[in-house]
């Protein structure tokens, strides 16, 4: 069971592919079943606080690598299906559905894979998965920027108190890419390589998404191009929303050690099983080299209001989000923050 539970990720992928295969209202129902089952499951089924000791590393790698053929199949089928549709409502629902699954199949899996050795098979798969959401350079900024600067003003992904999610999507997207470019520029200077050359991993990351745009255009012309772009931007926005809710309002003194308290955690069963334990974010940031199957629930970490998809919905209503998070931040200030962090908060 400790191994099989992560197959839920693939069940949602296959449901999406089947929905587009059957077309029409099946797409709408597939989207509603996916969203409804995750939110309801998180609310009704409680938390997963197990700490398994898995032994089959190859099995977990295979689960991650399967994301690439599944996502590619889903996107191609969606583009071909939408080209034949004249319903704007179905078109929009399809973009939301593909955007959501790109965020899970692509971004969540890639998040795990890009922490592997740069240039390895797993890392390459991760970069290509991120290209579906125009974000291959997340592999640069996230690993070499975010994990070092988390919960400080230098980190684009860590939202300060009072910033709403819509501002964060824009600010973090722009600042994250600027940071990735600077980090890659510094690396090239150290290696004595030209900035504008095939050695530039930022440029190669952009070209990965260009390849997918060309394929989309070849499949369905302008409609395919527009659909891929919209669904990709939705997936990219989901990433920034997740960044927002994982670190909102938390602070850390620059240069100090990263502890579990510097990320919001969640142990809800369906979110954890369908997102490769991304929910156990506090442990991930305390030790980024731990594979997803070994992450611990960290019951003493600060917790989100609910599971991931439910919390995403809450962030989209800023007044409600601020109201819900105010007591949680007050609790964090009182029971988690150290003296240096309290001083930082008083200066803001």
UniProtKB/TrEMBL annotation:
Compartmental location: Cell inner membrane
Q: Which residues form the Fatty acid desaturase domain?
A: 86-308
Protein's UniProt keywords contain Hydrolase: no
- BP GO annotations: lipid metabolic process
**Classification via Pfam families:** FA_desaturase
**InterPro entries, A to Z:** AlkB/XylM, FA_desaturase_dom, Na:dicarbo_symporter_sf
**Entry keyword set:** Cell inner membrane, Cell membrane, Iron, Membrane, Metal-binding, Monooxygenase, Oxidoreductase, Transmembrane, Transmembrane helix
The transmembrane segments are 7-22, 58-82, 88-108, 210-235
| Source organism superkingdom | Bacteria
Alphabetical GO CC annotations of the entry are: plasma membrane
- What membrane topology does the UniProt entry give? Multi-pass membrane protein
Can you tell me which family this protein belongs to?
Belongs to the fatty acid desaturase type 1 family. AlkB subfamily.
Per its record, how is this protein called by name?
Answer: Alkane 1-monooxygenase
The taxonomic lineage of its organism, from the top, reads: Bacteria, Pseudomonadati, Pseudomonadota, Gammaproteobacteria, Alteromonadales
